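User: Okay, second chain of the day. Same drill as before: sequence in, structure tokens out.
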Amino acid sequence: MQYVVIGLGTFGTKIIHTLSEHGADVIAIDQNKAKVEAVKDIATISLALDSTDEAAMKAAQIEDVDAAVVALGDSQEEAILTTAILKSMGIYPIVARAANSLYAHVLQLVGADQVIIIEEKMGEEVAKKLLAPEIHEKITLTTGHNLVEMQAKKTFIGKTLKELNIRKNYGVNVIAIKKKKTQIDEDGKVVQTVELNDLPSSEDRIEESDVLVVVGSESDIENLALSKEV
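Assistant: Same drill. Structure tokens below.
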């Protein structure tokens, strides 16, 4: 898979790091030569050019990428022109960052297939974390489902998976249980270890401090995490 990321601020650079760590080829583009130089060891190709220059963009030969990310931050006029040029080049999908809902609407009009308003997204994530502090880690799978590690809720303690019936009630599958164990090592020190039960049965009973590894849609997992009882 090959992607082009235009705009090498904090947002764009983080995307490049993450894509590269997962084995993707990334073309990094920015007008700022210092920013381009900073990612040359991470990106597959680093180009210092003006993304609002249609001729320069076509010369970069990026038409065959699997997706484009327009991460130009507060340079919204540049983002709009860049998105329009990418659209005219037949690139799909185009993911663009917007400063606010007005620019998001304009970006969609000129060809963005997905628009991200970072401040709103972060605000939503913080609120969800406050509402559901049990959720520790979340990974989005290629199927569109999420794999989540969540602390066992107080209402789970002492009940078996059969009694909780999480799959029927919430459409979420428990695929593993992490149990914390306190042990004494050879030096007489108290150490904590984690035992992973990756084939939990319906008769496994949830204990305090257990961490459940669950798979399901984002909305189903949120409903589970926010529920007062099961």
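The chain has two domains: 2-119, 129-226.

User: Thanks, on to the next one.
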